[in-house]
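Repro:
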Amino acid sequence: MSSALFTKAMPALFVLLWSTGFIGAKYGLPYAEPFTFLSIRFVLIISLLAALALAARAPWPRQPRQIVHLLVSGTLVHAAYLGGVFAAIHHGLPSGMAALLVGLQPILTALVAGPLFGEEIRVRQWLGLLLGLVGVTLVLAARNGGLSVDGLSWAGIGFALVALLGITAGTLYQKRFGQGMDLRTGSLVQYVGALLVLLPVAMTTETMRVHWSLDFVLALLWLVLVLSLGAITLLMMLIRSGEAARVASLFYLVPPVTAGLAWLLFDETLSPIGLAGMALAALGVALVIRR
């Protein structure tokens, strides 16, 4: 694949790979508690990135300020976002409601990106952000039989909001302070930052017992190789090359694509309302990213 073609395909490839993370979590979470699961995942990806970086003789960050920035962005993108989503579902928040709360990210990012980076958010883009949110809501409502707020876990809502703030702040922080990082060694330091936060939490709040089944191992390998190595690298490349609001809008496509994957893999129903929501989400993203 040529460089120009790969650049054009990056957004679609990122959405597809990122969407599989929810499928991988569905397979793996029954066999390990959330922070334990993520800690194992981070240890494996750190080991893999270290081997790749040493083999390629990749440049390592040397300035203490740069290392601190990478540790902070890794904590926000990996520990706060992933830990928040996994913990929210673990505490009883339906996955659809968690996805809807985290789905507020593109609008929150757009609100902050203008003053912070001087990005101009046009009327067309605001319309796209709102259409995307409506589309995501329709997809999730159709998939989960409605988005009732009855009996929701306040702890689950709190963790989902942590995830929302984490991925929003992490995207903006990476845009501001992580532009010059090597994707191999920089990502390694980011995962170290996330591990330094989540491992102590797992050790103090969870049993850290793991049922090593084939499903768990396959889910873990998929999340390490495809999500942590593939999708996160694409996200960092997109943040480096694009405006924050445009990159954030891609997250609107994740619930529809996840619903499509669930339809293929788990025979879940795709209703007309869900299909309409997918179309609205796609239209909303198109309005935001069109230059």
